[in-house]
Amino acid sequence: MRARAPGPRPHRMPGLLRLAVSDPIRSMYQTVSRYGDVVRLPLAPGRGIHLFCRPEHVEHVLVDREQRYGKAFTYRPLREWIGLGLITSDGELWETQRRLIQPLFSHRQVENLRPLMVAAVDRMLTEWDSRPDGTVVDATGVMSGLTLDIVGASLFGADLTGDRDSVYDAVETLQDAVTKVIKNPLTWVSPRAARRVSPGFRQWDRAKDTIDQVVARVIADRRAGRGHGRERPDLLDALLEARYEDGSAISPGQLRDEIVTFFMAGHETSATCLAWTLYLLSTAPEVRERLEEEVDSVLAGRPPTQEDTDKLVWTRAVLHEAMRLYPPVWTVERDAAADDEVGGWPVREGDTVIVPPYLVHRHPGVWESPEAFDPSRFLPDRAAGRHRHAFIPFGGGKRGCIGNAFAMIEVVLALVMVTQRYRLDLLPGFEPVPKVTVTLRPLHEMAMTLRRRD
Ligand code: HEM
């Protein structure tokens, strides 16, 4: 094992941290272009942050040695708002909750949710149909409304269509809040204190209240037996009816935290993926025409079933390529619970390890012309032989995304059904810029015109 990975000397850290705060992706790029794809940043005496950008490093940290790593301290600020749900918990609590929830997210179970997803996309398209051709929409906002509707209907049997705008604003506020708190060095000592001293925290608490009120209503409706066309038990039923080994039920606090977690994780990521996909398609007419041809020839106007999925090769390639360029979860971070060695470099207990999908997905040693939008790189003949951790939009290992199958059904369905009826074009002169918060959503509105295809 070598002594220590390359990286800046401690006196350069203040400048680097300033850049990391103002522009995290640029600072990561600069760091790896100067030091290579393994970098150690001296955070404090005896404590380092490691950046690993190669697929084999990802596999090592997230899969092969996952038991040596826990969620990084950087996830702690999230707990201030979403509590200790599946994303932010660790250890025994996480294992118990994951065991409880995992069966509901198997391929077979989420396939059962397809009709509810189709109905939600239909509701959005029917609303679009009532607007004049050429109407301008904010693609990020509409996709967020759609995926919130899907999560509400399919996981909680709830109609959340009336909550779209307030939840959208609240999620944006909370993402900004988490990002600001993470950037405050006090977070390393106490995220709660960092939250309290940050300007604007009252507004953040109001956003949390907005989410909490929606969640409380969803639970109260279910307890009162008010359903919304449910044919089989959903996530809310599973959580309410679950009994732990000692026979106890889930506590009200834990119930709230899990629901808020699924609320947030389940819609924001898929919405971001769809918004970037629509943007990229509007920049590449030949890619979009090929998508339209595939959708028209495979489905002839009907919504896709499970059996169609394998035939929608180009559709899936387009979505994968959009998630490669704009991974909704752009960074994945762990704290080492024990000493380790990654790619021949030492990692000490307590060090933080970053495996950023954004950089792994644009690694020039793995991807040809990594900055280009080229879905054909995901066609089976070109994808063959690529390292399986070169593409990690859903993370990997036991902490990988529980909603992976759910999300893929949802985004394929949404893209296909939109493509069957509409073309979306970016307003001329408008160039979206990624906003680096918890997710990689577009900084401003993604203003696009809706045009019917018929
Ligand atoms: C395109 C859509 C999505 C992307 C790109 C995505 C990405 C991710 C990633 C990268 C992680 C792992 C984070 C880490 O290792 O630190 C994760 C975890 C998680 N995701 Fe997703 N996700 C998506 C959709 C969904 C959906 C639809 C749901 C729920 C319905 C969901 C629920 C979760 C949960 C609960 C976790 C935490 C899992 C655990 O730690 O046990 N995600 N997601």
Automatic annotation (TrEMBL):
Transmembrane segments: none annotated. Heme binds at residue 401. Keywords: Heme, Iron, Metal-binding, Monooxygenase, Oxidoreductase. Pfam families: p450. Gene3D superfamilies: Cytochrome P450. Its cofactor is heme. InterPro entries: Cyt_P450, Cyt_P450_CS, Cyt_P450_E_grp-I, Cyt_P450_sf, Cytochrome_P450_Monoox. One of its GO terms (molecular function) is iron ion binding. Belongs to the cytochrome P450 family. This is Cytochrome P450.
